Amino acid sequence: MEPMNDTRILGFLLLGLSEEPELQPVIFGLFLSMHLTTAFGNLLIILAISSDSHLHTPMYFFLFNLSFVDICVTSTTIPKTLSNIQTHSKVITYAGCVTQLYFSVLFIGLDSLLLTVMAYDRFVAICHPLRYMVIMNPQLCGLLVLVSWIMSALHSLTESLMALSLLFCTDLKILHFFCELNQIIHIACSDTCLNNLVMYLSAVLLGGGPLAGILYSYSKIASSIRAISSAKGKYKAFSTCASHLSVVSLFYCTGLGVYLSSAATHNSLSSTAASVMYTVVTPMLNPFIYSLRNKDIKEAVRQFFRRKK
Questions:
Q1: Are 166 and 192 in contact (CB under 8 A)?
Q2: CA atoms lying within 13 Å on the CB side of residue 242
Q3: For a designed S-S bond to 48, which of 124, 209, 285, 300 qualifies (C-beta 3.0 to 4.6 A apart)?
Q4: 3-class SS at 268?
């Protein structure tokens, strides 16, 4: 097949999770409920942190940003899926696909970097408690978040610009529910060696690097907790990072599961279903994990609703 220039491409076909017509209402209801739950849960955490001065600390500042990014992740991917199911169409325009690619890479990368920053925050809090407020000052906290945004934006811009240079054949079917980078590279007809190189190098630097930083932080945290003499002290120290550790495990285990299953089985459908876990399910569960395990968040939410009444 002869490659087509991108200016002649009207759009792609997003095949989604299933092409079975009878399953579309189920998928629509499931995605809509998860999207609304994610938006409501994370927005509630944002409002609770904003309204309670006791939560204006580094840990909750990072949680505030994580909740905002989680809303953006699902808002980038799910609305187009819902729209296509509602209109019985699978088409996404070329410009819309590249835009979705840019923002999905941006916000998923931000999730990874913010989780790393939060791990560093917990490391300082447990391993250097007396110097915590000195080290984690507002300037450093703001700088860490700003650097995370810049790094993720540059990465996303690089991937999107390289995707713009790809040429495509007549088969424009994307076996996914959104314009995922790996799928776009896979259906391209032009040489994709450089795209694959950049994609895997970015995965190592912006995926493996943060994961290594998180593992290092928690190895130091574990050593500090073991050194605490009292059982009560150990429990208190562990409880301060239990929620974050749960979110990290969920995000990275599902993310790694996508690529490992894809590499092992070469099954696009299983890879697509697995990717729902870290792009949709994880942002939805984050508010529950933090609110159920955190007394300060629960109290702040109660106070917020009392003030509204």
A1: yes
A2: 13
A3: 300
A4: helix
Where do the H-state alpha helices sit in the chain? 24-51, 58-87, 94-127, 132-135, 138-164, 181-187, 193-203, 209-227, 231-265, 268-276, 282-292, 295-308
Band (pLDDT 50/70/90 cuts) for residue 32 is: very high
Residue that is written with structure tokens 């912006």 in the block = 206
The two beta strands, 11-14 and 91-93, are antiparallel
Output the CA–CA distances (angstroms, integers) from residue 103 to 72, 106, 164, 286, 292, in the order listed: 8, 5, 15, 20, 30
| Whether the Cβ atoms of residue 133 and residue 273 lie closer than 8 Å to each other | no
User: For the chain, how many residues are written?
Assistant: 309
DSSP state of 257: H
pLDDT value for 64:
94
Q: Average the pLDDT over each of 239-248, 259-268, 275-284 and give the range with the smallest value.
A: 259-268
What sign for the dihedral angle of Cα 132, 135, 141, 146? negative
Q: What is the pLDDT confidence band of residue 293, given thresholds at 50, 70 and 90?
A: low
- Is residue 55 within a helix (H) or strand (E), and if so which, with residue range? none
Which tens digit of pLDDT belongs to each residue from 106-133? 999 999 999 999 999 999 988 888 899 9
| Separation of alpha carbons 224 and 233, rounded Å | 11
Instruction: Judge contact between 161 and 198, C-beta under 8 A.
Output: no
Rounded CA separation 292/306 (Å): 19
**Can you tell me the distance from the alpha carbon of 263 to that of 183, in angstroms, rounded to the nearest whole number?**
13
Instruction: Put residue 124 in one of left, alpha, beta given phi > 0 → left and psi -120 to 50 → alpha.
Output: alpha
- C-alpha span between 298 and 306 (Å, rounded): 12
Question: How confident is the model over 56-85, as pLDDT tens digits?
Answer: 899 899 999 999 999 999 999 999 999 999
CA 268 – CA 305 distance, rounded (Å): 44
Which amino acid is it at 281?
A: V
